[in-house]
Amino acid sequence: MPWSWSSSSHAELPLLSVKGYASDEMEHNYRRAKELSQEHSGSVHQFRAIRGLWVFHLVRGQLANARGLAENLLALAHPRAKLGSTD
I need a labelling partner for 75 at 20 to 30 A (CA). Which of 5, 43, 55, 85 fits? Predict the structure, then answer.
């Protein structure tokens, strides 16, 4: 199977290059991607959307928002943590 960019990657890179991580447009795109990925909770797409929002808030200095998103990312990366598993 040949390698290809996902549709979100096509839109993300040019906008990121021109506007930067802290632009309102990037926030809008990542927020929309997060909404669309809610149907597939725990997916790579959801992780990428939340990570994009995390970077947006981090670069803007909105650290409380960035921390909440970082906690979401950690929960997605370690799904057993949500269940309170100790092993």
Answer: 5
